[in-house]
Write a structure and sequence with these properties.
The protein is α/β, with parallel strands linked by helices. The protein has a single domain, classed as 2-Layer Sandwich (Transcription Regulator spoIIAA), CATH 3.30.750. The protein has four helices and five strands. It has helices at about 25-35, 60-70, 90-100, 110-120, and strands spanning about 1-5, 10-15, 45-50, 75-80, 100-105. Strands 1-2-3-4-5 form a five-stranded mixed sheet, with helices on both faces. The protein starts with a strand and ends with a helix. This is STAS/SEC14 domain-containing protein.
Length: about 120
């Protein structure tokens, strides 16, 4: 399950995965982000906050996630991974590999610093 908030004035997308990610999660996300990008050149940042990475519900969820990244990665300035997860390093590596965005990892306790870093991109 993926909840998200698009902070339109700041151009920052906040993502909070809290259960296995589904194809429907990325359909909802795509609709919202595509509508925003119709009137804006880019997202200044994406903040992903998760205590642990929940994985995907099935192959369709994984595929929808990869399609979303492929369709939007050139229009994101920065990505902040806010997590204490042991696999965060892998997430950071993959994000750097599959996007043109600048990627940084922050501990959960430093979410405010992560947001400040994203806001500095605008």
């Amino acid at each position: 399950m993926l909840t998200f908030t698009l902070m339109k004035p700041e151009g920052i997308l906040r993502l909070h995965p809290s259960g296995p990610l589904t194809e429907q999660d990325f359909e909802r996300l795509r609709t919202e982000v595509d509508a925003y990008l119709m009137g804006h050149a880019r997202l200044n940042g994406v903040l992903v906050r998760a205590a642990e990475f929940p994985g995907w519900e099935n192959w369709a969820g994984f595929s929808a996630h990869m399609h979303f990244v492929h369709a939007h990665h050139k229009r994101v300035e920065r990505i902040a991974l806010v997590t204490d997860s042991a696999v965060a390093g892998l997430g950071e590596f993959l994000a750097e590999h599959f996007t043109s965005a600048e990627v940084r990892r922050f501990p959960l306790a430093d979410e405010r610093l992560a947001m400040q870093w994203l806001q500095a991109a605008s």
